[in-house]
Predict the 3D structure of the following.
Amino acid sequence: MAAQVSTGIVPLSTWPAGRKRLSILQLFRRRHSNEAAKQLHQTIVAQARQPGFYTALGVPDTLDGRFELIALHGFLVLHRLKADPAGIGLARDVAETIFDDLDASLREMGAGDLGVGKRVKKMGEAFYGRVAAYDAGLAAGGDLEAALRRNLYGTAQSSAETLAAAAGYVRNCYNALKECNFSDLMKGHLKFPALPAYGVPLPARH
């Protein structure tokens, strides 16, 4: 059997025992989120709203498509934070801030208390599924394109070229976060890489 090559990715299997099967809200619940978490959340949402995702990369411009982009960028940030023990607390705060914002958005759309609770729980389960899928997709031998096809694009049609461009963008984000100044990230400072233009893959960062 060939030796497994380490990618530096911290798999979900290494998370504390007993937490892996909890819902995302249980996993990351805290009473208060800090300013750095709010800033990182704002950056995640701002990046997810970039028009290029819906034009050049063909992500569906729907509520589901927007949720998928927030989940994708949220995963990338949480993944980086969880790679360092010092970032675990901030990762929890970022996750809580994401779901607090989803809760507030649903209420603004007119959903009642009972409906909001059920929908946020469903989103939490969906988010956890994306975390697992992208974690596996970025691991050695993983199929990131397949994970993006199933989740980011869902039932929408996506060409091989578009999937390659989307996967290249995600890998660039992963590498940029891995190389970023961790102390700056802990202060809420983050800049995502540029999107590919017109579905053309960006040169990979190494």
About this structure: Confidence is low (pLDDT under 50) at residues 1-33, 199-203. The chain has one domain: 24-186.
